[in-house]
Design goal:
This protein is mainly alpha-helical. Strands 1-2 form a two-stranded antiparallel sheet. Strand 1 and strand 2 form a beta hairpin. Helix 5 runs antiparallel to helix 6 and helix 6 crosses helix 9.
Length: 332
């Protein structure tokens, strides 16, 4: 990131993508290590989850179908009932383990990438060992922010549910029902995408500044002003790219049993590589967007202050205070 702070505000859609690519390419050695140690396992866990979920789904569906054609009260019926109950228990246990592992690796990956880019930005000496030593001390702040974002999204869906209930009871059966429903669906997706952008930006704020949780989200709401459309366009294209990889893996690997292992394995490796690269790219982009937003709002970041607070001091991670991140505003 060799651009001056004043220049960052002028980066648009393609500029942010290009700047993120330059950062990854220039520091490809350390980003490769972060990818292999954190992001690759994160992507692997996600793809394995798809495969195992499909296996559980097929087994439970098959046994439920057998149960429907079995007379109740027989020994076979009781065995199938117990078998289905056990399979559901194992399924939910698997989901719990998956969400826990995915959650941990996602937080660690975010902390590692954000800290790395901040060190690059301040020209601080950077090693993979230093990054990994700081990451465990930062991820708790990210966890609080994630939980707050989850709560916000949860209540958002409750509000949306109430709106759709009101729609169904009022004009759902009228000639205006479907046109209004389409508008509501568009507004729902736009709101969900907005919350996603705020959540990702809040993750960066949680690592680099003293605030986290709902305060970080509130800070992100103000930061994203003026760059909201660019951020939404970027996260939308990234989401579409991730969906394409997801769809390809499901069709070619999970549901491609007729193609044989010799064909499915190369497809699986390709999807794993693409997913890992997209996850890394997304984490770098969200951090670059943070610096772009700071520049856009003329909040000049003191590189020496940021550098000092990125240091591990007496074994404790010291986040950057707001007065250091939001120093005097410069005017253009």
């Amino acid at each position: 990131m060799d651009r001056e702070q004043e220049e960052m505000q002028f980066l648009g859609f393609f500029g942010i993508y290009l700047e993120s690519y330059k950062v990854i390419f220039a520091w490809r050695k350390i980003f490769s290590k972060i990818t292999l140690s954190l992001i690759l396992p994160l992507s692997f866990i996600y793809l394995v989850h798809m495969e195992v979920y499909n296996l559980f789904n097929r087994k439970i569906s098959h046994n439920k179908n057998e149960l429907e054609h079995t007379r109740s009260g027989t020994v076979k019926y009781e065995k199938l009932t117990d078998l289905i109950s056990n399979e559901w228990a194992y399924f939910w246990l698997f989901k719990a383990v998956y969400f826990t592992l995915h959650f941990i690796f996602a937080l660690l990956s975010t902390a590692a990438v954000v800290y790395t880019i901040a060190c690059i930005y301040t020209a601080r000496e950077l090693t993979f060992g230093k990054v990994m030593s700081v990451v465990p001390k930062v991820w708790k702040r990210l966890m609080v922010t994630f939980l707050c974002a989850f709560v916000a999204i949860f209540f958002y869906h409750i509000a949306v549910f109430v709106v759709f209930i009101f729609w169904a009871l009022s004009i759902g059966r009228s000639h205006l029902g479907f046109p209004v429903l389409y508008v509501l669906l568009i507004l729902y997706l736009a709101g969900l995408l907005y919350l996603t952008v705020i959540w990702h930006l809040a993750s960066v704020v949680s690592v680099l500044e003293e605030v986290y949780g709902f305060q970080a989200m509130s800070k992100s709401v103000n930061l994203i002003k003026g760059k909201l459309l660019v951020a939404i366009a970027i996260f939308l294209t990234l989401s579409v790219s991730l969906w394409i990889v997801h769809f390809a893996y499901r069709r070619l690997v999970v549901q491609g049993s007729n193609m044989g292992m010799a064909t499915r394995v190369p497809f699986a490796v390709t999807c794993l590589s693409l997913l890992s690269m997209l996850n890394l790219y997304g984490l770098v982009i969200q951090t670059v967007i943070y610096f772009v937003c700071k520049s856009y709002h003329h909040e000049n970041i003191d590189k020496s202050a940021l550098s000092d607070h990125l240091e591990v001091y007496l074994g404790e991670y010291v986040p950057l205070k707001a007065k250091d991140v939001q120093l005097e505003q410069y005017h253009v």
